[in-house]
Write a structure and sequence with these properties.
It contains 3 helices and no strands. By secondary structure, it is mainly α. It has one domain. The longest helix is centred in the middle third of the chain and has 44 residues.
Length: about 130
């Protein structure tokens, strides 16, 4: 078992990098959300060339969402060993309030929520592309 000081130190080291990654993930998701919402809200074009262009934009947005989802899951996988250690330490009886440890687990939950949100938005974009064909 890793000493509490060592585990907290590892978590603190991870948080500096994690903060930057989370900012990029949320900013990119926010951008894609507004773009895809706009594409979904557009009425079906009458002209075939415009419809083909809209389908291409929706397809490109789906690919960007897929990449963002893979990146988010990769971060979760990178955090998994440390999160596992935190859970083991918390179950063995924490001493005091483990702020860093609980913070890491909250980040894990947040990333899972982001992956679910990405999947939902991807499904909506997929349905819109199917409607346009």
């Amino acid at each position: 078992m890793i000493a509490a000081e060592s585990l907290s130190s590892q978590i603190d080291d991870v948080f500096s990098l994690l903060g930057v990654l989370l900012v990029f993930i949320i900013a990119f998701y926010s951008y894609l959300l507004t773009q895809i919402e706009a594409l979904i809200a557009k009425p079906r074009p009458v002209v075939d060339a415009e419809r083909t262009q809209l389908i291409a934009k929706v397809a490109a947005s789906k690919r960007l969402l897929a990449g963002l989802g893979v990146g988010t899951m990769a971060i979760l996988l990178l955090l998994a060993p440390l999160s596992y250690q935190v859970i083991r330490d918390l179950l063995s009886g924490p001493s005091g309030f483990p702020t860093s440890e609980v913070g890491l687990l909250l980040v894990d939950v947040f990333l899972v929520v982001v992956v679910v949100a990405i999947r939902c938005l991807w499904s909506r974009a997929r349905r819109r592309a199917a409607e346009l064909r």
